[in-house]
Design brief:
- The chain has helices at about 10-15, 20-25, 30-40, 45-55, 55-65, 80-95, 295-300, 335-340, 370-375, 375-380; strands at about 105-110, 115-125, 125-130, 135-140, 150, 155-165, 170-175, 180-185, 190, 195, 200, 210-215, 215-220, 230-235, 245-250, 255-260, 265-275, 280-290, 290-295, 305, 310-315, 320-325, 330-335, 345-350, 355-360, 360-365, 385-390, 395-400, 405-410, 415-420.
- By secondary structure, it is of the alpha+beta class.
- Strand 12 and strand 13 (about 215-220) form a beta hairpin.
- Helix 2 (about 20-25) packs antiparallel against helix 3, helix 4 packs parallel to helix 6 (about 80-95) and helix 5 crosses helix 6 (about 80-95).
Length: about 425
């Protein structure tokens, strides 16, 4: 009997009439089916609708940006590319699996002569670790046994961040001397500058911009091409009073937020980036929130403030933590010691998974479907998943994602633990 084969065009028409669930199973029949079905799935505009329906607006852009780190996601609601939406959907679904999947752990152990770990950041497959002695150890997940590039800022580091600029992955560092330095990972060199200074650099999943803060004046930096030095660009003066201190600022596409501390309260500044051809060409101050007073216990014991998104913020205190949202402008205080048996040392959020790093070396993961779940934290924390990571305090938490595989990064003074779920 003669074998009958259909041309690709016919198969595509057949596959168009089959629902997504069955298509996912049909992909496993053969390589041919897989390639044709993947082509169709990546062309389907329905991904924007289904993704928008399951992910909170506050978490959507950061989820998309981490899933597609080399694409500038300036405004998620204006993006139509089905490939980006499908990738975001699949990434989000995999992150939900961290609550039920078993995990494995790999560990980066710091060299003793570097001192303690002072800061960390991740981008795609890259990990940059800052130390007390000014060293910056740069790794990829392909080889965590040794750094592929070791830089040195010269003084104790207070922040390192990645910057994706003109196709190059750079590391930006700020030391306790407030010097702002730039490192080219591909060529393994420091990029010469005329001398820039900053109290801090912007955080957030969008690593396409580098914005430094110095005394409440925000300055965007640029590198016109691979062979030019760094130059300052547009600035925004928040015109802070003498008793106000900008303590953190984050970028989520064009949406940007700065948190200012003032005598036991915070003030939120919301500003927008003006983007042209992928470059940040200007700032526009959009709104300044009214002063937001901290509860007495929290206000008296503030240790650090973490901007989980541009609209959700946490403060870690001595024996309590607090949260606020730009939508409510009210600080809530939580005593989680009664549940955990020890203090919270760090927090993170990704794909609606709220993460806590504890003094006893464990982390706890909790799914939140809306901000009320954060407000109800003392009640809902009993539903969290505990993972024992170390015996030393988890001083910092962040995430990694390569090929849509979630990884939680838990940091102690001397170790960086990569917790994998796939």
């Amino acid at each position: 009997m003669e074998e009958v084969t259909f041309p690709t065009e016919v198969w595509l028409e057949i596959f168009k009439k089959i629902d997504r669930t069955n298509l996912m199973e049909l992909r496993l029949v053969c390589h041919n089916f897989y390639d044709m079905i993947e082509y169709l799935l990546n062309k389907n505009p329905v991904w924007k609708k289904v993704t928008d329906e399951i992910i909170l607006d506050e978490c959507l852009e950061m989820t998309m940006q981490r899933a597609h780190p080399y694409v500038l996601v300036s405004q998620w609601n204006e993006i139509e590319d089905p490939v980006l939406w499908r990738g975001t959907y699949l990434s989000f679904k995999k992150w939900q699996k961290v609550l039920i999947n078993p995990h494995t752990k790999n560990t980066i152990v710091s060299t003793s002569n570097f001192g303690d770990i002072s800061c960390i950041c991740t981008f795609d497959k890259y990990i940059a670790i800052g130390f007390d002695n000014g060293s910056i150890a740069n790794y990829t997940i392909d080889n965590i046994s040794q750094p592929f590039y070791l830089a040195n800022h010269g003084t104790r580091l207070i922040q390192v961040e990645f910057w994706y600029c003109n196709g190059d992955v750079l590391v930006v560092s700020v030391g306790d001397d407030f010097a702002l330095k730039f490192w080219d990972l591909q060529n393994k060199i420091e990029i010469t500058t005329s001398g820039f200074f900053a109290n801090s650099i912007n955080s957030g999943e969008c690593r396409h911009f580098c914005i430094g803060n110095m005394g409440g004046i925000l300055t965007s930096y640029d590198r016109v091409s691979k062979h030019t030095s760094i130059s300052p660009g547009p600035t925004l003066d928040l015109e802070l009073d003498y008793d106000e201190l900008l303590i953190a600022h984050a970028v989520d596409g064009i949406n940007m937020t700065a948190i200012v501390w003032q005598k036991g309260s915070t003030v939120e500044f919301f500003y927008l980036g003006v983007i042209e051809d992928g470059k940040l060409i200007d700032f526009t101050l959009a709104q300044v929130q009214e002063k937001n007073e901290l509860p007495e216990n929290l206000g008296a014991s503030v240790k650090r403030l973490t901007m989980l998104t541009v609209s959700l913020f946490f403060i870690i205190g001595e024996n309590c933590i607090g949260s606020t949202s730009s939508y409510e402008n009210e600080w809530y205080e939580y005593n989680l010691v009664q549940h955990f048996g020890c203090n919270v040392k760090s927090t993170a959020l990704h794909a609606q998974i709220l993460m806590f790093g504890l003094e006893d070396g464990s982390i706890h993961l909790l799914y939140i479907s809306h901000y009320d779940h954060v407000v109800e934290l003392e009640e809902r924390i009993k539903y969290s998943k505990k993972i024992e990571v170390d015996t030393e305090p988890i001083i910092d938490l962040t995430v990694l994602e390569v090929d849509k595989k979630p990884c939680i990064v838990a940091v102690t003074d001397q170790k960086v633990h990569l917790i994998n779920f796939f």
